[in-house]
Amino acid sequence: MTKQFEGKVALVTGGSSGIGRATASAFAGEGANVVVADVLVEGGGETVRMIKEAGGEAIFVKTDVSKATEVEALIKKIVETYGRLDCAINNAGIEGTMAPTADCTEENWDRTININLKGVWLCMKYEIPQMLKQGGGTIVNTASVAGLVGLQGLPAYCASKGGVVQLTRTAALEYAKAGIRVNAVCPGVIRTPMVDRLTAAQPEMKEALTAMEPVGRTGKPEEVAEAVVWLCSDSASFVTGHAMAVDGGFIAQ
Description:
It contains eight helices and seven strands. It is of the alpha/beta class and 253 residues long.
């Protein structure tokens, strides 16, 4: 049976853990050549090792998505290695530190926006020209339910993810006729190192977050990965500019 991404090339930023790692594994399982990009070398290398052990093909490229020169070099490396870029999953992101809006530090604001929002824009800035050159491609940006509704104590994070949703819609409209589909996933509370960090200091927060999920549990990274793979597949050929909540009903309430 032919796998749906056989011979295709998929980039996953923030691929060292969590949703990124699950997504990289899912694409490899569907036959794609996967490029894992992250600032965390050890985790990224581990993702590649897991993919190869499962019989897939992957390489790791150390990349800080907030730096234009590094993103440009990443895309160049992908094209040099595989000749093309079919699917780009711009997933790298941080939660920043928790504090109300008036107490959010300028440093936290700048760092969160630089990685979560500027990073997604920079990735698209260099991915899109390559996709135009080859006649099309698909992009999925990782936003969050925090890009669709407000969450107290995370002003920079919410602003960055809301920005990702709007950037996704804009790029989708701009390149709709050029064969490039651009969508976003908006995960709810997912069992990832990021959520573990947020709740480490306050165990009761973990219970509160789980209680906010109508399905009564937190999500698995693999459940988000499945949505990303679908958005990049031919099955989603008429879907672009969409911010898809994968959230157990979180924002329906």
